[in-house]
Amino acid sequence: MTDGNGFLNALRDIVGETHVLTTPADTEPYYVDWVGRTRGTALCVCLPASTQEVSAVVALCARDAVPVFPQGGNTSSCGGSVPLEEGRGILLSLRRMNRILSVEPENDAIVAEAGAILVEVKAAAEAADRLFPLSLSSEGSCAIGGNVSTNAGGTAALRYGTMRDLVLGLEVVLADGRIWDGLRILRKDNTGYDMKAMFVGSEGTLGIVTRVALKLFPLPRHRATAFVAVDTVAGAATLLGRCKAEFGPLLDAFELFSGSQLDIVCRHVEGNRRPIDSDHPWYVLMELQTRDGAKELSSRLEALIGEALEDGSAADAALAQSHAQAEALWRLRHSVSEANRRHGLNFTHDVAVPIGRIADFMQEADAAMASDFPEAEIFSVSHMGDGNVHYTAIFRPGAVKASGADARDLGARVTRKVHDIAVGLGGTFGAEHGIGQRYRASLQRYKSEVELDLFRAMKRALDPQGILNPGKVL
Ligand code: FAD
Fold first, then answer.
1. Residue 399 C-alpha to ligand 1 middle, in angstroms?
2. Cβ atoms of residues 358 and 233 within 8 Å
3. Residue 143's pLDDT band (cuts 50, 70, 90)
4. Is 191:264 a contact under the CB 8 Å cutoff?
5. Which of 35, 93, 142 maximizes ligand 1 atoms within 8 Å of its Cβ, making it the mutation to test the pocket?
6. Of 79, 160, 206, 263, which cross-links 436 as Cys (Cβ 3.0–4.6 Å)?
7. In this predicted structure, what is the pLDDT of residue 394?
8. Which GO BP terms apply (predicted)?
């Protein structure tokens, strides 16, 4: 590497003096993740304004073998978005590249820069009477390039798939600074390897995403939302099966809460209220969406829930009677991360198992936690419609000290147990958040040598110097 000042001055020449941040007050928000647990440092935060500037910055870093840590909205749930502790490298923030470039209703496509905030991409689509369906609780902060790089999932993946299913094309700056223009809006393109697929979910380790072309869908005008209490996870799975058979693609979301999760969401986040007064071990938040036939949709949902209450597969239910009531139900779901953060030292997992085995997963994981970590309180919320379970063990203040364990070591032991159980049931240890720094050990533990070899070969081919997001994924 050349001398630090020479390098920083060269960066300033590319992006402008004020877009290279070095003072701690300016850089701090970029160096710590949103939970405040993973922290790193870098030589600077660099904020380019165009693909050409990203390209020049990365070429400079390649020349001097300086690591590049790309960042979008910094909402990563696995320590993926912050630099490492050692302080080498630059943090490359896409924040200034936040423009919506075009909305094309006739092609059902939208094109945006990587730093565009998800909620703004959705609003631009809506203004053209179209839907961009990715829905995450973090959508007011996360950026579309980060969504691509993590292959984000969220609550509507049941109906529309994950980000991988929603990307039409990408523009990517490669590790040597060259620009790959794959920003196509085609539905069919069988001209060789699917390069865009390789970058989706690669967490900034293979290239820097600079522009994104996405699929749009008809904008639903009506929704029917319900909150249903069930006594068992198996009962929730039965209800899900019925909803899928009855409503097919109109079923937009099917989210399962443990009773304990609902309790702390109402206790820690102001304004939340229990939609059902009686206590139950599990609750489902479900939503149907349609463009036409609002009345019919609500009465069909009411009828299905009525049958479930009658035959005992549902224990109680509340149907939203207005937009405001539906929003209040969704607020419960969107408050989960905040409630967990406030409750104590939390270790959240992002596993997936086949839907029919979610009940086994819960039973085995709860038993393992009770025997090995009796101080832990257990909470869960699941995107049940696609088998994705966020299983969380929380240690209240004092519990970690009392157990005599170091927090990092404790987290590693809890995680290993949870991941072993999910993988043992034919599932995965990472469904939608990615690997980041936090789950690298699990990647090594559960992936076969053959798959790891393929990963390393891809990394070597695209980033031979290993400058793109080192310490993440591999
Ligand atoms: P960042 O956090 O900044 O980065 C994430 C990763 O992508 C990092 O490895 C980073 O280096 C890389 N990266 C970012 N931008 C680029 C780029 N332009 N080019 C190359 N690499 C890049 N996730 C879900 O999937 N489903 C959920 O339901 C969900 N709910 C959440 C709720 C809350 C409250 C929070 C805080 C997070 C949630 N997440 C969820 C996780 C997170 O929001 C997603 O992973 C999101 O896609 C990250 O986007 P970001 O812009 O914040 O990326």
1. 30
2. yes
3. very high
4. no
5. 142
6. 79
7. 96
8. respiratory electron transport chain
Question: What's the pLDDT band for 400 if we cut at 50, 70, 90?
Answer: confident
Specify whether domain 100-218 bears CATH 3.30.465.10: yes
d(CA 114, CA 110): 12
For residue 176, count other CB atoms closer than 10 A to its CB.
16
CATH topology of domain 222-336: Alpha-Beta Plaits (3.30.70)
CA 20 / ligand 1 centre spacing (Å): 23
* Alpha carbon separation from 293 to 187, 188, 225, 326, 450 (Å, rounded): 29, 32, 15, 18, 51
pLDDT value, residue 397 = 79
End-to-end CA distance of the chain: 23
Q: If pLDDT is split at 50, 70 and 90, which confidence band does 221 have? A: very high
Segment 40-53 mean pLDDT = 97
Name residues contacting ligand 1 (CB within 6 A): 34, 70-77, 80-81, 94, 114, 136-138, 142-143, 145-147, 149-150, 152-154, 203-204, 208-209, 337, 432-433, 436, 469, 472
Q: Which pLDDT value is given to residue 82?
A: 96
Nearest protein CA to atom 33 of ligand 1, as residue? 138
Task: Pick the residue whose CA is nearest to atom 25 on ligand 1.
Answer: 152
Which atom of ligand 1 is the closest one to the Cα of 210?
18
